[in-house]
Amino acid sequence: MQRRACCHTGGSITFDRAGNLWLSTGDNSNPFASGYAPIDERPGREPWDAQKSSGNTNDLRGKIIRIHPEPDGSYTIPRADLLVSGTFRSVPGPEVYANYTATNAVVAPSLGRTLSGGVTNLPVTIVEPGTMYGERLNQVDMRFGKILRLGRMKTVVNLDVYNVFNVNTVLTVNYAYATWLRPTSILLARFAKIGVQFDF
User: Which of 87-91, 128-132, 174-178, 187-191 has the lowest mean pLDDT?
Assistant: First the structure.
């Protein structure tokens, strides 16, 4: 513990109903030097830099600690009851089609006659089906859950995050000649949903 400057060296301690011991510790940093967050990386300014303590996961200062004391003097780390799951989806992009509608006015000079059967136009395939696809869709969805227990009741709070990396992959395109490959829909932007489940 540094003693060159005050402050935040106190803490508190309490037990919960499950017999877990909770400790809170000060960050051992002086927050009054600049009026802003106690972050100061200049040489010799360690007492004013909380990155050494509360910002450092390898340091117990500036933390809330929960342990479960055992009868033999040891302790265990209580279960956090956290749920984490994810889904990765990777599928080919939309198949690309390209067709040209040739009218009698275009065909007649080559054939020396109009189209047979009295038709007025003829669809011509430019891109062979099944040979060309759009951008591949790679989507990651995540779920974070926390189990809360109160007596015989269990509550699960979930946070679902869809499209974690906020990709904007094209899902469908236009195949008309004048607007060929113009996107008509894209993947929804990243969004989150909160859900709660109660079990009695």
Answer: 174-178
Is 141:163 a contact under the CB 8 Å cutoff? yes
Nearest Cα residue to 134 out of 97, 162, 165, 167: 97
Q: For the chain, how far is it from start to end, CA to CA, in angstroms?
A: 47
Bridge partner residues of 100 (DSSP): 124
Q: Which of 129, 137, 138, 139 is nearest to 95 (CA)?
A: 129
Structure tokens at 90: 């990777």
Asked if residue 169 lies in contact with residue 188, where contact means CB atoms within 8 angstroms, the answer is no
What pTM did the predictor assign?
0.55
Give the three-state DSSP class for 49: coil
- The full set of domain ranges for the chain reads 11-78, 79-94+133-200, 97-132
Q: What is the pLDDT of residues 93-125, one digit of tens each?
A: 888 888 888 888 888 888 888 888 888 888 888
Give the DSSP per-residue string, 117-134: GG-SEEEEESS-TTS-B-
Listed residue (180, 159, 187) closest to 99, CA to CA: 180
Q: CB atoms < 10 A from the CB of 56, how many? A: 14
Of 165, 144, 170, give the one whose Cα is nearest residue 156. 144
- Beta-sheet pairing, 99-103 with 64-69: unpaired
Contact yes or no for 137/128 (Cβ under 8 A) = no
